[in-house]
Design a protein that fits this description.
2 copies of one chain form a homodimer. Chain A is of the alpha+beta class. Chain A is built from 19 helices and 28 strands. Chain A is globular, with a radius of gyration of 25 Å. At the A-B interface, strand 21, helix 16 and strand 27 of A face strand 21, helix 16 and strand 27 of B.
Chain lengths: 579, 579
């Protein structure tokens, strides 16, 4: 810090692509602090060091920070300043704070700079200290990429680029910078294996009216892919040459750049005279509205995932109380069953597997050593997903393992009512997630119960399990729900020390009807897996809710049973019979 | 315009207090154009003149503008620019546009200036042309004011000022400027009669830590009121001295001013060095959360208003088909029945009285000459309200006059389902109108029907029928619904050429319960008047909705019947019997 002339530094957990799961190469925050959680920021001053993280990680951070001399700042607790405010309060005016501008978005950097400026503190965003001090830094993954055929993607690279260029013209842009990895994978119809859970690969793309410029480690490309790209006017550059390219862009370029999806260094390297068009990345919106081929594939993925889930639930129901099962071994079992499905490419995130009171810990990360044993009593929550070439899945079921209390039954039923409430929504063009969210909560609010997370997020097509731009939650992000979007529907009830219940399906936005009053849309349920009839207090359901459940269960049976053996078929018949 | 050095001018329909109903003294737009509608802006250039108004007034404006040489710009129609864009497009760069800055809010002026600046057009906000050209301009009303006792207001002036000063301290303000008339009336516990519908009077107030400075025409005050105010350290200034006072404020004053509730001249006259604290007016929030005395009074007003409404509905039911009734005479009849109630101070707005297809015109303004005759067939919509010392009312009922179609029945029932849906809402702290709105629409959306207006607005305590800050509608204004707020609940269905249905009650936000998950609130229905059972398709209602309706009707009967004669009592019994 002294050599680099800064008085304090900020070390974030992001990579230059703002990924949800950064590769080890970018886990500098983890290396320097020993803290392995996914979310956390380290601040180092000349006198002290601190880690800011949220309640999911308080326990883990305490353990991992022991004897490091790094203080833990518990975000969200009263009196705890966020790290920006902490810096503003603790550093003398005139100080300089270093941060690697590649690991913060343009939007985040502006907010940071604003807070610090009020305290007369200057930011140095070219603080690339990891390049000097990180011994044994892992390399950027060199794994190969593979092409996802038109039978899965529905649109060729050429078609996608054409649509994008038309939109660039509308926005009067000469260049369009794409730096998030799922957008690049979607654009190019390639998938990779650089990180766990997300089938992405490391690259940057700049689209101009004549070329698609792809910055990528050439080891990742087969010669066949290289030749094909050359034919399509895709120019290949070294991954490491991206920032030089940005610096050397034509001074009069009109550059489309998404301030929430580009790191701040990309912006600062653009030629001074260039016009910066700051808008939501074109691909963000295109990618969210799944095309008919993607949707057909999603339906296939749902059958496979449903078969794996039903196999799992059957196994659980027949094994509990007979053989030892832990939260960890159950999650393992489910992954194994998913792996038996065609075109499976791993799980889409780390399975949340929580028995009884552990189910109430929303982001419970089960570990082999500390996993609880499942007993033939109470509720068990499992939130998981798979990556298939046909699509990404995300499903939560809460399962009855034995006797359950009336309170558990009531809570399960209230969550189910909320789930059905959102699933049955009909809404006009212009509706946003902020409008729909209450449909999943109204039933439990009437019982004085609520949950602290959102109700729905977007999901990628064989890409990231959390994908924007839509979001169904009380906070408004201004994004309209449009045809072809696939979202999760996942209300929950969490009672600390008692139980956790979450019920999650994926739902597709489809047409309902067009009348004199305009066009209306509704959801089609994609996920195929029974709810647990044993956990339902039928007297709390109204006629339409019962009808919805019976119809859904019939559909699950019809679509999943052909892939089951006789015993399992019988079991599913029983689990899905009308109430 | 030439003398004053401007190339075009904007004439708005506002007064310097941004009132919903300006006094005649400020109806310059009406005087210059002949257009009498409540909303409309006139633009005059050296070559042309235009009036911009919305669809409510297209027909009326066409008629009133005939032969004036003023073009009509139909806002909301395709290709029609708003007047800001029109000016930006039609005036050459370097032009100057005049506007009376007293008749635009600070926020509006900033938006206007921004649009014009892009076209290199300058604004002159001190264009007070009406002072020179308006011959026979009406004077500002000199009617007296009267005190509203503690038994109605629940809080003395002194208590209110104390609360406000505490809040000013929190906001670090030395002065607080109040310029909207309902806020001044609420603050001082006075009411006036300067305009129709709103019991306000013309004044400005500036609160400092030592004084309340009241700018008012002294004719309005009795000597008793003057003496009382002197005792309470309220300093009286001439109404016309307000702007000089603003100019002469201490240069180091820290002035709280609401940019949405102050005109732009007030802001521009403040000393340059003074600190402007731009926040929502303190009184806006205090006034919205009714105190227990106000709420008790509201309940009394609702009984009176319910008695008047039931008298009206009884009369209508027994007169239709026997004597001639028009939309106009029906509205007159209702006003007469309200006038029989104690402490009645006029209607709270111009009654909307629409028979059959006229009910589908949302802001239908009935006129004696053109009023339709009510026939013993179809539906009749009446939206009205009264001003009582105990509170302001606003109610809409849609009434069966004879045979109605199945479509009318379905639509009535869908509106009722929406009305009940919102009425039954339970919601945690932090909930805003944008979250609740869907509860009133979900039932009709499932039938491909929607309405273009908001679902709920705030209402004053013997003040304005439309009062902020809360709003229940798809557009988010960021305001949370809090305890003591009174809002309208008024979903509707409008089918052009066929029928219009709206069902409106006032609802009060009260506590529901506090649990481990926080505090939850709900609505208490205040309005007391039956819905029309004859218009309901019972098969579309679920069990809870039927229960709600029966309970509500029982409550209406219990509270209203003691004030009715035997025949009417019998009629009400019949109208409110359980379904």
């Amino acid at each position: 810090m002294a050599t680099l002339g800064v008085d304090a530094c900020i070390i974030t957990s992001a990579d230059p692509h703002l990924s949800e799961y950064p590769a080890d190469h970018w886990k500098f925050r983890e290396w320097i602090s020993g803290f392995t959680g996914s979310a956390g920021t380290v601040i180092v001053t000349n006198e002290e060091a601190g880690l800011w993280t949220d309640s999911r990680y308080f326990l883990q951070a305490e353990q991992e920070l022991e004897d490091t001399g790094i203080d833990l700042y518990r975000m969200g607790e009263p009196e705890i300043l966020n790290y920006k405010e902490w810096l503003a309060k603790n550093l003398p005016p005139g100080s300089v704070v270093g941060v690697n501008g590649k690991n913060v978005t343009i939007t985040e950097l502006r907010e940071l700079a604003k807070t610090l400026k009020l305290a007369d503190i200057r930011l140095d965003t070219r603080f690339f200290v990891e390049e000097d001090v990180w011994e044994g830094r892992p390399t950027i993954p060199e794994d190969g990429i593979f092409e996802l055929g038109l039978e899965y993607t529905g649109l060729s690279r050429i078609d996608k680029v054409q649509t994008i260029r038309a939109e660039m013209k509308k926005q009067d842009a000469t260049h369009y910078i794409v730096s998030t990895l799922d957008e690049i994978a979607w654009l190019l119809n390639f998938r990779g294996q650089d990180v766990l859970f997300n089938p992405i690969f490391h690259a940057y793309v700049v689209i101009s009216h004549n070329h698609v410029n792809l910055f990528i480690d050439p080891h990742k490309l087969t010669s066949a892919i290289g030749q094909q790209l050359a034919k399509e006017d895709v120019k290949i550059f070294l991954y490491t040459d991206f920032y030089d390219y940005i610096k050397d862009m034509p001074p009069l370029a009109k550059v489309l750049i998404d301030p929430a999806r580009s790191n701040s260094i990309v912006h600062s390297f653009l030629p001074k005279q260039s016009t910066k068009i700051e808008k939501t990345s074109i691909i963000t919106n295109l990618k969210a509205q799944k095309n008919t081929v993607e949707i057909e594939n999603f339906r296939k993925a749902m059958v496979k995932d449903g078969v794996a889930m039903v196999n799992f639930l059957y196994w659980l129901d027949n094994t509990i109380g007979k053989e030892a099962i832990t939260e960890y071994s159950a999650a393992q079992k489910l992954s194994e069953l998913r792996a038996k499905q065609d075109n499976y490419h791993g799980d889409s995130f780390n399975t949340i597997s929580g028995y009884a009171a552990n189910g109430a810990i929303v982001h419970y990360a089960v570990q082999e050593e500390t996993a609880a044993e499942l007993k033939p009593q109470g509720l068990y929550l499992i939130d998981s997903g798979g990556q298939y070439k046909e699509g990404t899945t995300d499903i939560t079921r809460t399962v009855v393992l034995g006797d359950i209390t009336d309170e558990e039954k009531t809570d399960y039923t209230l969550v189910l009512k909320g789930h059905i409430g959102l699933d049955q929504a009909v809404y006009p063009i212009g509706t946003r997630g902020v409008h729909l969210d209450i449909l999943a909560r109204q039933a439990m609010w009437k019982h004085g119960i609520n949950y602290g997370h959102g109700t729905g997020h977007g999901i990628g097509h064989f890409l990231c399990v959390h994908e924007g731009p839509q979001s169904i939650r009380p906070q408004d992000n201004g994004v309209e729900i449009t045809l072809g979007m696939i979202s999760s529907n996942e209300p929950g009830i969490y009672k600390a020390g008692k139980h956790g219940i979450r019920l999650e399906n994926l739902i597709l936005t489809v047409n309902d009807q067009t009348t004199d009053f305009g066009s209306f849309m509704k959801f089609e349920t994609l996920t195929l897996c029974p709810f647990d009839r044993r956990a339902i207090n039928i007297s709390l359901l109204d006629k339409q809710e019962i009808e919805w459940l019976n119809n859904y269960h019939q559909k699950v049976y019809d679509q999943i049973s052909p892939f089951l053996n006789t015993d399992m078929k019988k079991w599913l018949k029983d689990m899905t019979k009308a109430i």
